[in-house]
Amino acid sequence: MAERAGRVEGKAAIVTGAGSTPGPGVGTGKAIAIALAREGASVLLVDLYPERAEETRAIIEAEGGKAQVFGGDVTRSADCAAMVAEAVSAFGTVDILVNNIGRATVGTVVDTTEEAWDQALAINLRTVFLACKHTVPVMIANGGGAILNVNSISALRGDGTIAYSAAKGGMLAMTTDMAYSHGRDGIRVNAVAPGHITTPMVLSVPGQGDDMVTRLRNEASLLGTPGTGWDVASAAVFLTSDDARWITGVTLPVDAGVLSVTPLLMAGRLRGVSDEKS
Ligand SMILES: NC(=O)c1ccc[n+]([C@@H]2O[C@H](COP(=O)([O-])OP(=O)(O)OC[C@H]3O[C@@H](n4cnc5c(N)ncnc54)[C@H](O)[C@@H]3O)[C@@H](O)[C@H]2O)c1
């Protein structure tokens, strides 16, 4: 039987934040990079801490895939220019860009400092702007491409992370605006919005690994099952592949239905979990 080609066979991809916060499980950037490589893409693994991206490279290469590490700070324009140049030099072009870097910080508009605000906007939004700014011209010259932004349900629901939510809201607007501006260049721009997934970054927050918190995170969704970086990666591969050739400007929740229910109807189920424990 003929072997089926991967869904992104022969494509050149950049994944920002392709390492993972140390700890159990897998980050979304790492999972997306591995999943793209499994489907045939060559992947430039970009991370501020190259040793984290090296772990991703080792996994990809052990599976027979192709990847290269680029250490750099994506909040810096010069690093983004070098990142794109490296991808073009290594793989010939850039067909896929995944903007995955991001980190939530808790705070209201009152207690968030100006410094924390600027930092959150830099990590969660400036990285997207700069990576796209340097990649889109290459995609235009190439006749097209696919951009995937890793957003969050925080852009769509209040959760007390004002700077992070504002940045992710900006990402939502960038997704539709770039889809408009570059549709006729053959560039599709989409996003995924993960819900309460369990990743090393989540587990690095004190208390998040506790049994009850884990159960509440799972039970808060309609499916009531745990989600991981791999669930985000499946959606990312679909949206960056030609299977999604007629989809652009979309932010797809990957949240087991968290956004599809009124909190009132979930309250009883969640109370059941916390009552059990007390
Ligand atoms: N984990 C969740 O529950 C959850 C939920 C919704 C959305 N998200 C989104 O998922 C994305 C990240 O997930 P992850 O699990 O891959 O995180 P992660 O922390 O495991 O990995 C992100 C990587 O980005 C790197 N990085 C940070 N700043 C950088 C910079 N300036 N330049 C280059 N690299 C940099 C870090 O070193 C890290 O290795 C974020 O956009 C986040 O908002 C996560």
Helix and strand topology:
Layout: E1 12-16, H1 28-38, E2 42-47, H2 50-62, E3 66-71, H3 77-91, E4 96-99, H4 114-142, E5 145-150, H5 162-182, E6 187-194, H6 200-203, H7 211-219, H8 229-240, E7 251-254, H9 263-277
Parallel strand pairs: 1-2, 1-4, 2-3, 4-5, 5-6, 6-7
Bound molecules: nicotinamide-adenine-dinucleotide.
How would you describe this structure to a colleague?
This protein has 278 residues and is an alpha/beta fold. The chain has a single domain, classed as 3-Layer(aba) Sandwich (Rossmann fold), CATH 3.40.50. The chain contains 9 helices and 7 strands; from the N terminus they run βαβαβαβαβαβαααβα. It has helices spanning 28-38, 50-62, 77-91, 114-142, 162-182, 200-203, 211-219, 229-240, 263-277; strands at 12-16, 42-47, 66-71, 96-99, 145-150, 187-194, 251-254. A 7-stranded parallel β-sheet has the order 3-2-1-4-5-6-7, sandwiched between helices. Helix 5 links the parallel strand 5 and strand 6. Helix 1 (28-38) packs across helix 8 (229-240). The chain is globular. It starts with 11 loop residues before the first strand and ends with a helix. Bound molecules: nicotinamide-adenine-dinucleotide. Nicotinamide-adenine-dinucleotide (NAD) is lined by residues 16-17, 19-21, 27-29, 46-49, 52, 73-75, 100-102, 123, 127, 150, 152, 194, 197, 199-202, 229.
